[in-house]
Amino acid sequence: MAAPAVEFEDYSVHFGEFQALQEVSLQVPEGAYVAIVGPNGAGKSTLLKALLGLERGAMRDGPIRTSGRIRVFGCPPQEVPPGWVGYVPQVKGFDRSFPALAIEVVVSGLRQHWPFWIGREERRQAAEALEKVGALHLSNRRLGRLSGGELQRVYLARSLIRRPRLLLLDEPATGVDVVGETDLYRHLEAYRAESGATILMITHDWEAAQHHASAVLVLNRRVVGYGPPAKVLCHECLSQAFGHVGHAHQMLLGGVEVG
Amino acid sequence: MLEALQLPFMQRALLAGLLVGGLASYLGVMVVQRRLSFLGDGLAHAAFAGVALGLLLQQEPLWVAIPFAVGVSLLITWVREKSSLGDDTAIGIFFAVSVALGVLFMSLRQGFAPDAVAYLFGSILTVTPTDLGVMGLIALGVVLLAPLWRYWAYATFDRELALADRQPVMLHDYLLSALIALVVVASVKVVGIVLIAAFVVIPAATARLLSQTFAAMTLLAVLMSTLSVLPGLAAAYLLDVPAGSAIVLTQALLFALALLRR
């Protein structure tokens, strides 16, 4: 049996006294599309960053303790070959005054460092990546002048340019308009169909999770539910994770009305 | 002015100005873009404490100031990495401690210290061949480390992305801080503790106003800085004004022109 793309085994994270993740255990097979849902502060971003080996390096406040095991394609995250993992962060950490063109951001994903100069072949690859996400027209636009949705497309192009085997997306639809959101999920599904890549996507959109994902992980510092959307996106699971499932919020999940 | 450039001390002054300007502005783009503009000032005052200690110990001040300022720069970086304090707070603490130490060392020294005052305001026209040699060595080091620009720029753009791509961001942070400290110390004798921060900040800020890319910003900052040296020296020679001030005011003029152009 092929090794899972992602594997957590009793994985816990403490930031000082605060426990961000509690004994998370799950396996994600290659080619799966997993939507990660949960309330704010559930550890969703922490989980994603753990797959990048980021939790140690990114935190500046207090000691970090981790226990348990993570494997990405059978390796510890820090040993995964470059380019195997693509990442779109939720919060774009750049200063809007940083002088950069969209194409430079995309090429940085290819080179894994900042370009001083971009050659013809790299320019072609970047243009191709931007075109696939409908953002070719943004190529020479100043990054600080892009809208939220345009920025998401550029970052998506950046994450896809090396054709990663694992794509990690932290709320990729944030700031994206309705049409853009439809395009986003279309691009992701097309990429997954074409490449067989594994996708882990954090989302607050349960409908998107239901329609696009092959599995849903409901997380609230620990695994509350993990499995097919129809099974996991149920009243019991969501109530356990969120405390309730929203007031006056009607949603049909597998024919079961919740609200 | 052309006649003046025949004189060895003017040639040394020009070369020193170009080296200081080029080095400070090259590193300054990282400082400005990381919103650490206060760092130049902080390290300049660490250099002040180091110089004062050197004078107290009756040693060549710069040889004491170098490890002192580099040590402070590494401490500032360590505090920024490990604590939740803002960058300006971390720098401010060491700025204040450095000034306090400098004043303490000066007070412990017997008698008036005119040489200490010279370090405050610099004396580009009295640069010695040894001073140029030290600056040249530091410039060589910076040039040899030029391939790291792409990693520093990447972490400057988005630290998390750089970390996700397995860049040794923290190591580069320490290295960059140490280099900035070296350049600041090497520059204090030329332009003074009071004005060196301007060399770090103003050309980079001017370049940012005019650049579409970070590479262009880097090149333009170095160009702006070096272009301001000759008019500054000319003003010093012709109008008998302090050269460091004249150069900084030329940089400020270029900044104002860039601002008006936008």
Quick summary:
Helices cover 33% and strands 25% of the residues of chain A. Chain A is of the alpha/beta class and 259 residues long. Chain B has a single domain, classed as ABC transporter involved in vitamin B12 uptake, BtuC (Orthogonal Bundle), CATH 1.10.3470.10.
Overview of the structural elements:
The complex is a heterodimer of chains A (259) and B (262). The longest helix of chain A has 18 residues, at 178-195. The model of chain A is unreliable at 252-259 (pLDDT under 50). Chain A has 9 helices and 11 strands. Chain A has a 6-stranded mixed β-sheet with strand order 5-6-7-3-8-9, sandwiched between helices. In chain A, helix 3 runs parallel beside helix 5 and helix 4 (120-132) crosses helix 5 (148-160). Chain A is of the alpha/beta class. Chain A has 2 domains: 6-84 and 165-258, Rossmann fold, CATH 3.40.50; 95-163. Chain B has 262 residues and is mostly helical. Chain B has a single domain (4-121, 128-261), classed as ABC transporter involved in vitamin B12 uptake, BtuC, CATH 1.10.3470.10. Chain B has 12 helices and no strands. In chain B, helix 1 packs antiparallel against helix 9 (169-191). The longest helix of chain B has 26 residues, at 8-33. Chain B starts with 7 loop residues before the first helix and ends with a helix. Classes of the chains: A alpha/beta (259), B mainly alpha (262). At the A-B interface, helix 3 of A face helix 3, helix 7, helix 8 and helix 11 of B.
